Amino acid sequence: MNIEINADYRLTSDPLNIFVMYRKVSDPTKRPGFDASKHDTTPKETWVTLANCRDVAHALNWYVDHRVKTSEATTLVELRDVIVEFQNEIASLYRTRTTGS
Question: What is the pTM of this model?
């Protein structure tokens, strides 16, 4: 399985687990001692495992919890908006898959 949640998160799997993955982009030009004449300037993209989960429902619940914990919400209304945003992402994925657009 390799399911994109959005541009920065996806779900992958092996026979026993579901993994929540995060896209990390490293800019080599920001490294100490970087010299453009000696080093490649192309940003490097890697995927980092954030969570190992037992099933898809657990992975999606973990993702929502992660989004809530890492949000900058300062009120319950803002926190609700984070959760609604995730619900809309999932609904959008479902509509895209079922309508073929």
Answer: 0.73
